[in-house]
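User: Um, what's this?
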Amino acid sequence: MYLASFLNKLIKDDGFILVDANSVKYIIGNPKKEKPIILRLLDKKLHYKLLFYPDLYFGEAYTDGTAKIENGSLTDFLNIAFKNIGRSEINIFGQLLKKLRGTYRYLTNFNFAEKSKNNVAHHYDISDELYDLFLDTKRQYSCAYFKNENDSLETAQNNKIDHIIKKLNLKPNQKVLDIGSGWGSLAIEIAKKTQCTVTGITLSENQYNYSIKKAKESNLENQVSFKLIDYRQLNEKFDRIVSVGMFEH
């Protein structure tokens, strides 16, 4: 088992018993206790997930119960791990694992178009009432710009919009693209304050429908349009492109 081999390269000071999802036991390191701590894995996917991305997947597995600590507490187990952190990086095996982790992270985090749509839908296509609880009235979801400590959230979000519009250095009749346009507030404000035409694109059906409604309420349907499309599928040309917060996805 590769995970057990890796852990035995890493753990030299103290140790524990690893029981994999097939109920096979492995002695990791040199356990000092008469009854060593047991790390029991209940999901076969953890055999490789913990190898490539332990800092994320161990926490998730412990939380959802697919990784359990026996004969001790989580603190006891982490104490053993912390005593041995860094050992794998001082040998060739550790360097190889480090490169493999990087490759694994790249492949699993690559944001294909379909994955992007699923991510956005999972995050935004939920109750509108939820976002109204903590966002400003324009539903600005990215960081606000507080000029001073007395600014309200509403003021700070308006500051941000004004700052972005100024940085765009817009000229009349230019075409502007807003990638990841959210609930449409930036695109609508650009249209209100300039003579530019604006296209906002999003992958969220909720945001798309909300944005169209807000543009109509502002009588800007002829100046602002919204599309339910991935930016990689857009073939139009624009004079300015703005994207606020999209890279977080």
Remarks:
- The chain has a mean pLDDT of 85.
